[in-house]
């Protein structure tokens, strides 16, 4: 079980008494991660993979150690983890680096964040590849059979989220990978909302690529990771090339390195990557199972409370077992942005409002073109956070009666 009082002490942002329910957008950062970032600046502030002096060696060691910790978090090998800026860059790297032929097809879903959607639209327009969108039911639920008619021999890639950033629903990724592999296609999993909140095991999933961000998993901003299965790395070209990514260069030629170095041209986000490694350690110490269980209890409390407030419409399944700790809703008669401002003004409760970078889902599944209010929980939220949120929302709803 997660020791919530101890966990909360690690997060300086919470000392203000504010109630942070927007971890889906970005998470808070605990002291051990902040300390690790500062350690780099204080003690071995040098470039990585270059210098031979002591501090440079220490920086390289810390950077590579961070890669190993992030790899451990998802059960990958260190050389399968590439540091990038964020999940968006990781997805773009695959869109640009995996060469597509005219007539091939990409399959994605209506649930996706724009970062895992418009990249495929652009590719479709530029390269004349096909794009097939799998539609969910009204609650955002998808079953393996929904994918069968979309995935065929022409499919080069299936790009699917493991957790919706709006509804918290979790498409059956393991079954989708199986179906896709049977047809000879690759699978890119958008793990931006799953890796921070639950045990994700790339070996068990057998996915080919996995994208996620450091800033959503208690790490710093400016760093993310892309998992590429070891034997597929020769099929994926880097987005950028330059210093640090070469094995040899002559006047008329260059040869790229193999492994992560091939994709990490230029000076990487060193402090940020070291911080992301520390965040992986922090999460593993708390225990991904404990985090998942803690969030499920809070989500259940939130869903039960919302059901008792007049005028609230909750999107997605009402059953906390069927979703992660992300709950989007509307209050009838009030714009979602006004609800968010009212929650903040009345009680310092921070929630997101708008379309959450998922317009196709809002327009075509939720029928909420003006957006929704989204409250999301993480390991540092407690029952009181949820209760204050619910009480304030009830007060707001009464002003509309
Ligand atoms: C499901 C999902 N995918 C991708 C992203 C993009 O992440 P980032 O902005 O860190 O690149 C997000 C961000 O909210 C997300 O929720």
Short note summarizing the structure:
This protein is of the alpha/beta class and 401 residues long. It folds into 2 domains: 130 residues, Aspartate Aminotransferase, domain 1; 254 residues, Aspartate Aminotransferase, domain 2, CATH 3.40.640. Helix content is 37%, strand content 16%.
Provide a descriptive summary of the structure in words.
This protein is α/β, with parallel strands linked by helices. It folds into 2 domains: 4-21 and 287-398, Aspartate Aminotransferase, domain 1 (Alpha-Beta Complex); 32-285, Type I PLP-dependent aspartate aminotransferase-like (Major domain) (Aspartate Aminotransferase, domain 2). The protein has 13 helices and 15 strands. The protein has helices at residues 4-9, 31-43, 54-73, 87-97, 118-127, 144-148, 173-182, 202-205, 270-286, 288-307, 336-347, 359-364, 383-398; strands spanning 19-20, 81-84, 105-109, 130-134, 155-161, 186-190, 209-213, 224-228, 246-249, 254-256, 312-314, 326-331, 349-350, 352-354, 372-376. The strands form 4 sheets. The chain has a 7-stranded mixed sheet with strand order 2-8-7-6-5-3-4, with helices on both faces. Strands 11-12-15-14 form a 4-stranded antiparallel sheet, covered by helices on one side. Strands 1-13 form a two-stranded parallel ribbon. Helix 2 (31-43) packs antiparallel against helix 9, helix 3 (54-73) crosses helix 9 (270-286) and helix 10 (288-307) runs parallel beside helix 13. The protein is globular. The two termini are 41 Å apart. 47% of the residues are buried. The mean pLDDT is 97. The structure holds pyridoxal-5'-phosphate.
